[in-house]
Design brief:
The chain has helices spanning 10-16, 55-61, 63-79; strands at 23-26, 30-34, 42-48, 85-88, 104-108. It is an alpha+beta fold. It has a 5-stranded antiparallel β-sheet with strand order 1-2-3-5-4, covered by helices on one side. The structure holds guanosine-5'-monophosphate and zinc ion (ZN). Residues 10, 19, 21, 33-37, 45, 90, 96-99 line the site of guanosine-5'-monophosphate.
Length: 117
């Protein structure tokens, strides 16, 4: 069923507590944890607890939860005292997506180049 946990999904395992993560915030619908390979002083991933392969499919099926992910991204940045930050949703392997469970990267704590690579 859409949104159900997937046995082979790393982020579903983090939601279940089967893989450890440094969790910084949790809500009824989301978990935020530090990226294992940080690209900036603040690099936190915000994920929905439900499984969708990318941000757009999450938003199509569960717009309220997609909004929760964005709100939590802002809460993370505020907690990290990042006034300027970037929210990134890599979508598709060609754009650098490696984990196919929707997630927002929250990047901050340093100057960020625009346009990105
Ligand atoms: P993507 O490349 O799909 O946009 O982002 C996946 C992110 O997950 C990468 O930045 C990667 O460093 C992070 N990541 C991969 N495996 C783990 C893990 O086991 N724990 C944590 N905390 N982050 C992970
Ligand atoms: Zn998943």
């Amino acid at each position: 069923m859409a949104g159900e946990p997937q046995a082979d999904c790393l982020f579903c395992k983090i939601v279940a507590g089967d893989v450890p993560a440094t969790v910084v915030r949790e809500t009824e619908t989301t978990v935020a944890f530090r990226d294992i390979n940080p690209q900036a002083p603040t690099h936190v991933l915000v994920i929905p607890k439900v499984h969708y392969p990318d941000a757009a499919s999450l938003a199509a099926a569960e717009p309220g939860i997609a909004g929760d992910v964005l709100r939590e991204a802002g809460e993370v940045a505020a907690e990290e005292k990042s006034e300027s930050y970037r929210i990134v949703f890599n979508t598709g392997a060609g754009a650098g997506q490696t984990v196919f469970h929707a997630h927002a990267h929250v990047l901050g704590g340093r100057g960020l180049q625009w346009p990105p690579g």
